[in-house]
Amino acid sequence: MAATEGDEGTVSLVDVLEEDEELENEASAVLGGSDAEKCSYPEGYVKRQALYACNTCTPAGGEAEAAGVCLACSYKCHEGHELFELYTKRNFRCDCGNSKFGAMECKLFAEKEKVNAENLYSHNFFGLYCTCNRPYPDPEDQVPDEMIQCVVCEDWLHGRHLGCSVPENVELQEMVCELCMKKAPFLWTYAACIAGWSIIIFLRCLDKKMLQGSLISRAVVAYYQDTEASPSQMAECRLKVLQTSGRTREESGAVFWPCGWRSKLCSCTSCKRLHVETKTAFLLDESDTVLAYENKGKTTEQEGGGDGRDPLMSALNNLNHVQQLEIIHEYNDMKTELKDYLQRFAEEGKVVTPEDIRHFFEQQQGRKRRRADASQYYCS
Protein backbone atom coordinates (compact mmCIF):
# COMPACT_ATOMS: atom_id res chain seq x y z
CA MET A 1 0.00 0.00 0.00
CA ALA A 2 1.40 3.34 -0.96
CA ALA A 3 1.90 5.90 1.77
CA THR A 4 -0.81 8.51 1.83
CA GLU A 5 -0.12 12.21 1.55
CA GLY A 6 1.26 13.51 4.81
CA ASP A 7 2.82 10.17 5.83
CA GLU A 8 6.33 11.57 5.78
CA GLY A 9 9.21 9.20 6.39
CA THR A 10 7.19 6.05 5.64
CA VAL A 11 7.68 3.51 2.90
CA SER A 12 6.10 0.19 2.00
CA LEU A 13 7.97 -3.01 2.82
CA VAL A 14 7.99 -3.96 -0.85
CA ASP A 15 9.68 -0.66 -1.72
CA VAL A 16 12.35 -1.24 0.92
CA LEU A 17 13.13 -4.76 -0.21
CA GLU A 18 13.15 -3.88 -3.91
CA GLU A 19 15.35 -0.84 -3.39
CA ASP A 20 17.75 -2.82 -1.22
CA GLU A 21 18.07 -5.54 -3.85
CA GLU A 22 18.56 -3.00 -6.64
CA LEU A 23 21.28 -1.15 -4.73
CA GLU A 24 23.00 -4.43 -3.86
CA ASN A 25 22.98 -5.49 -7.53
CA GLU A 26 24.37 -2.12 -8.62
CA ALA A 27 27.12 -2.26 -6.01
CA SER A 28 28.02 -5.83 -7.01
CA ALA A 29 28.16 -4.77 -10.66
CA VAL A 30 30.40 -1.75 -10.10
CA LEU A 31 32.62 -3.10 -7.32
CA GLY A 32 32.60 -6.78 -8.22
CA GLY A 33 35.09 -6.22 -11.04
CA SER A 34 37.59 -4.55 -8.69
CA ASP A 35 39.68 -6.02 -5.86
CA ALA A 36 38.74 -4.68 -2.42
CA GLU A 37 41.88 -6.05 -0.72
CA LYS A 38 44.84 -5.37 -3.01
CA CYS A 39 45.98 -2.08 -4.51
CA SER A 40 45.59 -2.24 -8.29
CA TYR A 41 48.87 -0.36 -8.95
CA PRO A 42 50.96 -3.50 -9.73
CA GLU A 43 48.48 -4.31 -12.53
CA GLY A 44 49.54 -1.18 -14.39
CA TYR A 45 46.98 0.89 -16.27
CA VAL A 46 43.86 -1.16 -15.56
CA LYS A 47 41.46 -1.45 -18.47
CA ARG A 48 38.51 -0.40 -16.28
CA GLN A 49 38.12 -0.15 -12.52
CA ALA A 50 36.14 1.58 -9.79
CA LEU A 51 37.89 4.81 -8.76
CA TYR A 52 37.68 7.43 -6.03
CA ALA A 53 39.17 10.89 -5.49
CA CYS A 54 40.08 11.98 -1.96
CA ASN A 55 39.03 15.54 -1.17
CA THR A 56 40.82 15.25 2.18
CA CYS A 57 44.23 14.48 0.69
CA THR A 58 43.92 16.31 -2.65
CA PRO A 59 41.30 19.02 -2.00
CA ALA A 60 39.62 21.00 -4.75
CA GLY A 61 40.77 24.60 -4.89
CA GLY A 62 44.05 23.77 -3.19
CA GLU A 63 47.54 23.31 -4.57
CA ALA A 64 47.08 19.56 -4.93
CA GLU A 65 46.83 18.01 -8.36
CA ALA A 66 43.96 15.75 -9.42
CA ALA A 67 44.49 12.15 -8.28
CA GLY A 68 42.53 8.91 -8.20
CA VAL A 69 42.70 5.88 -5.91
CA CYS A 70 41.53 2.31 -6.41
CA LEU A 71 38.80 0.55 -4.45
CA ALA A 72 41.16 -1.17 -2.00
CA CYS A 73 43.02 2.06 -1.21
CA SER A 74 39.73 3.89 -0.64
CA TYR A 75 39.08 1.36 2.15
CA LYS A 76 42.55 0.87 3.62
CA CYS A 77 44.31 4.20 3.09
CA HIS A 78 41.48 6.75 3.01
CA GLU A 79 39.03 5.41 5.58
CA GLY A 80 37.13 8.30 7.16
CA HIS A 81 38.21 10.75 4.44
CA GLU A 82 35.88 12.72 2.19
CA LEU A 83 35.80 10.75 -1.05
CA PHE A 84 34.30 11.49 -4.45
CA GLU A 85 32.95 8.33 -6.06
CA LEU A 86 34.00 8.37 -9.72
CA TYR A 87 32.14 5.19 -10.73
CA THR A 88 34.57 3.61 -13.23
CA LYS A 89 37.35 4.97 -15.43
CA ARG A 90 39.38 3.31 -18.17
CA ASN A 91 43.15 2.82 -18.45
CA PHE A 92 43.94 4.24 -15.02
CA ARG A 93 46.71 3.44 -12.55
CA CYS A 94 46.17 4.00 -8.83
CA ASP A 95 47.78 7.24 -7.58
CA CYS A 96 47.50 6.52 -3.85
CA GLY A 97 50.71 7.50 -2.04
CA ASN A 98 52.54 8.99 -5.03
CA SER A 99 53.94 12.53 -5.17
CA LYS A 100 50.46 14.04 -5.39
CA PHE A 101 49.82 12.94 -1.80
CA GLY A 102 52.84 14.58 -0.23
CA ALA A 103 54.35 12.57 2.62
CA MET A 104 51.48 10.07 2.74
CA GLU A 105 52.39 6.52 1.70
CA CYS A 106 50.08 3.85 0.38
CA LYS A 107 49.52 1.19 3.05
CA LEU A 108 49.00 -1.55 0.48
CA PHE A 109 51.74 -0.87 -2.08
CA ALA A 110 54.26 1.82 -1.15
CA GLU A 111 56.74 1.42 -4.03
CA LYS A 112 55.18 3.65 -6.67
CA GLU A 113 56.47 6.05 -9.28
CA LYS A 114 56.04 9.76 -8.53
CA VAL A 115 53.30 10.20 -11.13
CA ASN A 116 51.31 8.07 -13.55
CA ALA A 117 51.93 9.90 -16.80
CA GLU A 118 49.27 8.09 -18.81
CA ASN A 119 46.39 8.75 -16.40
CA LEU A 120 43.74 11.17 -17.65
CA TYR A 121 42.02 13.53 -15.22
CA SER A 122 39.04 15.86 -15.33
CA HIS A 123 37.03 18.10 -13.01
CA ASN A 124 35.31 14.90 -11.82
CA PHE A 125 38.34 14.31 -9.57
CA PHE A 126 37.42 17.48 -7.67
CA GLY A 127 33.75 16.54 -7.35
CA LEU A 128 32.53 18.61 -10.31
CA TYR A 129 30.56 17.36 -13.29
CA CYS A 130 28.85 18.32 -16.55
CA THR A 131 29.34 21.40 -18.73
CA CYS A 132 27.83 23.40 -15.86
CA ASN A 133 30.81 22.45 -13.68
CA ARG A 134 28.67 21.73 -10.63
CA PRO A 135 28.84 19.10 -7.85
CA TYR A 136 26.47 16.15 -7.69
CA PRO A 137 24.27 16.08 -5.79
CA ASP A 138 24.03 19.86 -6.06
CA PRO A 139 22.44 21.51 -2.98
CA GLU A 140 21.61 24.60 -5.06
CA ASP A 141 19.91 22.69 -7.90
CA GLN A 142 16.29 21.83 -7.20
CA VAL A 143 15.54 20.53 -10.71
CA PRO A 144 15.08 16.72 -10.82
CA ASP A 145 17.42 15.37 -13.49
CA GLU A 146 19.50 12.30 -14.28
CA MET A 147 23.23 12.23 -14.85
CA ILE A 148 24.46 10.37 -17.93
CA GLN A 149 28.08 9.43 -18.59
CA CYS A 150 29.77 10.11 -21.92
CA VAL A 151 31.58 6.95 -23.04
CA VAL A 152 34.45 8.95 -24.56
CA CYS A 153 35.45 11.64 -22.02
CA GLU A 154 33.68 9.74 -19.19
CA ASP A 155 32.32 12.98 -17.72
CA TRP A 156 28.79 12.94 -16.27
CA LEU A 157 26.27 15.37 -17.73
CA HIS A 158 22.78 16.46 -16.75
CA GLY A 159 20.15 15.26 -19.19
CA ARG A 160 19.01 18.85 -19.75
CA HIS A 161 22.53 19.90 -20.76
CA LEU A 162 23.02 17.31 -23.51
CA GLY A 163 21.52 19.42 -26.27
CA CYS A 164 19.14 16.61 -27.26
CA SER A 165 16.23 14.65 -25.86
CA VAL A 166 17.06 11.66 -23.66
CA PRO A 167 15.56 8.47 -25.17
CA GLU A 168 13.60 6.05 -23.06
CA ASN A 169 14.55 3.00 -25.14
CA VAL A 170 16.51 0.70 -22.86
CA GLU A 171 18.64 -0.50 -25.78
CA LEU A 172 20.19 2.96 -26.21
CA GLN A 173 22.84 2.40 -23.63
CA GLU A 174 25.81 4.54 -24.63
CA MET A 175 26.09 8.30 -25.09
CA VAL A 176 28.76 10.48 -26.68
CA CYS A 177 28.56 14.15 -25.71
CA GLU A 178 28.62 16.93 -28.31
CA LEU A 179 32.14 18.06 -27.42
CA CYS A 180 33.54 14.56 -27.96
CA MET A 181 31.57 14.17 -31.21
CA LYS A 182 33.21 17.33 -32.52
CA LYS A 183 36.67 16.06 -31.54
CA ALA A 184 36.02 12.90 -33.61
CA PRO A 185 33.84 14.34 -36.44
CA PHE A 186 33.79 11.10 -38.44
CA LEU A 187 31.39 9.76 -35.79
CA TRP A 188 28.69 12.05 -37.20
CA THR A 189 28.64 9.83 -40.30
CA TYR A 190 27.88 6.78 -38.19
CA ALA A 191 25.39 8.77 -36.14
CA ALA A 192 23.44 9.73 -39.27
CA CYS A 193 22.99 6.09 -40.18
CA ILE A 194 22.75 4.07 -36.96
CA ALA A 195 22.22 6.32 -33.91
CA GLY A 196 18.68 6.09 -32.62
CA TRP A 197 18.10 2.65 -34.19
CA SER A 198 18.01 -0.59 -32.28
CA ILE A 199 20.38 -2.83 -34.22
CA ILE A 200 18.34 -5.92 -33.31
CA ILE A 201 15.11 -4.35 -34.54
CA PHE A 202 16.94 -2.96 -37.55
CA LEU A 203 18.20 -6.37 -38.62
CA ARG A 204 14.79 -7.94 -38.08
CA CYS A 205 13.32 -5.32 -40.33
CA LEU A 206 15.98 -6.09 -42.93
CA ASP A 207 14.94 -9.73 -42.82
CA LYS A 208 11.38 -8.66 -43.55
CA LYS A 209 12.65 -6.28 -46.26
CA MET A 210 10.76 -3.44 -44.59
CA LEU A 211 13.64 -1.02 -44.89
CA GLN A 212 14.54 -1.55 -48.52
CA GLY A 213 14.05 1.45 -50.78
CA SER A 214 12.86 4.79 -49.57
CA LEU A 215 13.46 4.56 -45.83
CA ILE A 216 17.20 4.08 -46.00
CA SER A 217 19.73 3.73 -48.79
CA ARG A 218 20.98 0.39 -50.07
CA ALA A 219 24.49 1.37 -49.03
CA VAL A 220 23.40 1.36 -45.41
CA VAL A 221 21.47 -1.90 -45.89
CA ALA A 222 24.64 -3.48 -47.24
CA TYR A 223 26.53 -2.10 -44.25
CA TYR A 224 24.23 -3.89 -41.81
CA GLN A 225 24.36 -7.11 -43.81
CA ASP A 226 28.13 -7.22 -44.04
CA THR A 227 28.40 -9.90 -41.34
CA GLU A 228 27.52 -12.44 -44.01
CA ALA A 229 29.52 -10.77 -46.76
CA SER A 230 32.59 -12.32 -48.33
CA PRO A 231 36.08 -11.25 -47.14
CA SER A 232 36.58 -9.27 -50.35
CA GLN A 233 33.39 -7.30 -49.76
CA MET A 234 34.27 -6.66 -46.13
CA ALA A 235 37.69 -5.32 -47.14
CA GLU A 236 35.98 -2.11 -48.27
CA CYS A 237 36.02 0.69 -45.70
CA ARG A 238 32.67 0.70 -43.91
CA LEU A 239 32.97 4.39 -43.17
CA LYS A 240 33.31 5.18 -46.87
CA VAL A 241 30.28 3.02 -47.60
CA LEU A 242 28.21 5.05 -45.16
CA GLN A 243 29.54 8.31 -46.54
CA THR A 244 28.05 7.34 -49.93
CA SER A 245 24.61 6.76 -48.41
CA GLY A 246 23.70 10.40 -48.63
CA ARG A 247 22.30 10.40 -45.10
CA THR A 248 23.19 13.37 -42.91
CA ARG A 249 22.11 14.78 -39.57
CA GLU A 250 22.52 18.01 -37.70
CA GLU A 251 25.95 17.98 -36.10
CA SER A 252 24.92 19.26 -32.70
CA GLY A 253 23.93 17.79 -29.35
CA ALA A 254 24.89 14.52 -27.73
CA VAL A 255 24.33 11.24 -29.57
CA PHE A 256 22.78 8.10 -28.10
CA TRP A 257 23.91 4.84 -29.68
CA PRO A 258 22.09 1.49 -29.86
CA CYS A 259 23.36 -1.60 -28.08
CA GLY A 260 26.04 -3.28 -30.19
CA TRP A 261 26.89 -0.17 -32.19
CA ARG A 262 30.64 -0.53 -31.62
CA SER A 263 30.71 -3.77 -33.60
CA LYS A 264 29.56 -1.79 -36.64
CA LEU A 265 32.48 0.64 -36.61
CA CYS A 266 34.97 0.11 -39.40
CA SER A 267 38.30 -1.36 -38.30
CA CYS A 268 40.23 -1.11 -41.54
CA THR A 269 43.80 0.21 -41.36
CA SER A 270 42.77 3.71 -42.31
CA CYS A 271 39.96 3.87 -39.73
CA LYS A 272 42.15 2.42 -36.99
CA ARG A 273 44.60 5.24 -37.66
CA LEU A 274 41.72 7.71 -37.49
CA HIS A 275 40.65 6.37 -34.10
CA VAL A 276 44.20 6.60 -32.76
CA GLU A 277 44.52 10.21 -33.96
CA THR A 278 41.27 11.17 -32.22
CA LYS A 279 42.08 9.11 -29.11
CA THR A 280 39.00 6.93 -29.54
CA ALA A 281 40.65 3.58 -30.31
CA PHE A 282 38.85 2.05 -27.30
CA LEU A 283 35.56 2.36 -29.20
CA LEU A 284 36.68 -0.56 -31.36
CA ASP A 285 36.85 -2.75 -28.24
CA GLU A 286 33.43 -3.96 -27.13
CA SER A 287 34.86 -5.23 -23.84
CA ASP A 288 35.71 -1.61 -22.97
CA THR A 289 32.07 -0.81 -22.23
CA VAL A 290 30.79 -0.18 -18.72
CA LEU A 291 28.16 -2.83 -19.41
CA ALA A 292 30.86 -5.43 -20.09
CA TYR A 293 32.63 -4.44 -16.85
CA GLU A 294 29.39 -4.65 -14.85
CA ASN A 295 28.59 -8.07 -16.31
CA LYS A 296 32.07 -9.21 -15.30
CA GLY A 297 31.41 -7.97 -11.77
CA LYS A 298 28.07 -9.78 -11.57
CA THR A 299 29.64 -12.99 -12.88
CA THR A 300 32.45 -12.74 -10.33
CA GLU A 301 29.94 -12.38 -7.51
CA GLN A 302 27.81 -15.29 -8.75
CA GLU A 303 30.78 -17.59 -9.20
CA GLY A 304 32.32 -16.62 -5.88
CA GLY A 305 35.32 -15.04 -7.55
CA GLY A 306 37.48 -12.31 -6.06
CA ASP A 307 37.91 -12.46 -2.31
CA GLY A 308 34.33 -13.75 -1.99
CA ARG A 309 34.26 -12.93 1.71
CA ASP A 310 31.14 -11.95 3.58
CA PRO A 311 31.74 -9.26 6.26
CA LEU A 312 30.03 -11.39 8.93
CA MET A 313 32.18 -14.43 8.13
CA SER A 314 35.33 -12.29 8.19
CA ALA A 315 34.47 -11.19 11.72
CA LEU A 316 33.67 -14.76 12.79
CA ASN A 317 37.16 -15.90 11.78
CA ASN A 318 38.58 -13.91 14.71
CA LEU A 319 36.49 -15.84 17.28
CA ASN A 320 36.97 -19.30 18.76
CA HIS A 321 34.68 -22.18 17.81
CA VAL A 322 32.28 -21.80 20.76
CA GLN A 323 31.96 -18.05 20.23
CA GLN A 324 31.33 -18.60 16.54
CA LEU A 325 28.46 -21.00 17.27
CA GLU A 326 26.93 -18.59 19.79
CA ILE A 327 27.10 -15.65 17.40
CA ILE A 328 25.67 -17.65 14.50
CA HIS A 329 22.82 -18.89 16.70
CA GLU A 330 22.01 -15.34 17.87
CA TYR A 331 22.24 -14.01 14.31
CA ASN A 332 19.90 -16.65 12.89
CA ASP A 333 17.36 -16.05 15.70
CA MET A 334 17.43 -12.30 15.11
CA LYS A 335 17.08 -12.73 11.34
CA THR A 336 14.10 -15.07 11.74
CA GLU A 337 12.38 -12.79 14.24
CA LEU A 338 12.93 -9.72 12.07
CA LYS A 339 11.54 -11.54 9.04
CA ASP A 340 8.43 -12.59 10.99
CA TYR A 341 8.04 -9.08 12.38
CA LEU A 342 8.17 -7.46 8.94
CA GLN A 343 6.00 -10.15 7.40
CA ARG A 344 3.06 -8.95 9.51
CA PHE A 345 3.36 -5.50 7.99
CA ALA A 346 3.43 -6.98 4.49
CA GLU A 347 0.37 -9.15 5.11
CA GLU A 348 -1.61 -6.23 6.51
CA GLY A 349 -0.45 -3.84 3.79
CA LYS A 350 1.04 -1.48 6.37
CA VAL A 351 4.08 0.74 5.97
CA VAL A 352 7.19 0.30 8.09
CA THR A 353 8.30 3.44 9.93
CA PRO A 354 11.62 4.17 11.66
CA GLU A 355 9.76 3.89 14.96
CA ASP A 356 8.68 0.34 14.08
CA ILE A 357 12.27 -0.72 13.43
CA ARG A 358 13.46 1.01 16.59
CA HIS A 359 10.75 -0.78 18.58
CA PHE A 360 11.87 -4.16 17.20
CA PHE A 361 15.47 -3.70 18.29
CA GLU A 362 14.43 -2.34 21.68
CA GLN A 363 12.49 -5.59 22.16
CA GLN A 364 15.59 -7.53 21.14
CA GLN A 365 17.73 -5.68 23.69
CA GLY A 366 15.13 -6.33 26.42
CA ARG A 367 15.11 -10.06 25.70
CA LYS A 368 18.89 -10.15 25.69
CA ARG A 369 19.06 -8.48 29.13
CA ARG A 370 16.47 -10.89 30.57
CA ARG A 371 18.44 -13.88 29.26
CA ALA A 372 21.65 -12.48 30.76
CA ASP A 373 19.99 -11.89 34.15
CA ALA A 374 18.53 -15.41 34.16
CA SER A 375 21.92 -16.87 33.32
CA GLN A 376 23.61 -15.02 36.23
CA TYR A 377 20.92 -16.21 38.65
CA TYR A 378 21.28 -19.81 37.50
CA CYS A 379 25.07 -19.75 37.78
CA SER A 380 25.06 -18.35 41.29
From TrEMBL:
Pathway(s) it belongs to: Protein modification; protein ubiquitination
Keywords for the protein's UniProt record, in alphabetical order: Isopeptide bond, Membrane, Metal-binding, Phosphoprotein, Transferase, Transmembrane, Transmembrane helix, Ubl conjugation, Ubl conjugation pathway, Zinc, Zinc-finger
InterPro entries xref list: UBR7 (IPR040204), UBR7-like_UBR-box (IPR047506), Znf_FYVE_PHD (IPR011011), Znf_RING/FYVE/PHD (IPR013083), Znf_UBR (IPR003126)
Transmembrane residue ranges: 187-206
Any Gene Ontology CC annotation: cytoplasm
Molecular function GO terms recorded: ubiquitin protein ligase activity; zinc ion binding
Domain UBR-type: 37-111
Keyword Ubl conjugation: yes
Listed EC numbers: 2.3.2.27
Pfam families: zf-UBR
Top-level lineage group: Eukaryota
Catalytic activity reported: S-ubiquitinyl-[E2 ubiquitin-conjugating enzyme]-L-cysteine + [acceptor protein]-L-lysine = [E2 ubiquitin-conjugating enzyme]-L-cysteine + N(6)-ubiquitinyl-[acceptor protein]-L-lysine
Zinc finger region(s), UBR-type: 37-111
General function of this protein: E3 ubiquitin-protein ligase which is a component of the N-end rule pathway. Recognizes and binds to proteins bearing specific N-terminal residues that are destabilizing according to the N-end rule, leading to their ubiquitination and subsequent degradation.
Xref: PANTHER family: E3 UBIQUITIN-PROTEIN LIGASE UBR7
Identification of the protein by name: Putative E3 ubiquitin-protein ligase UBR7
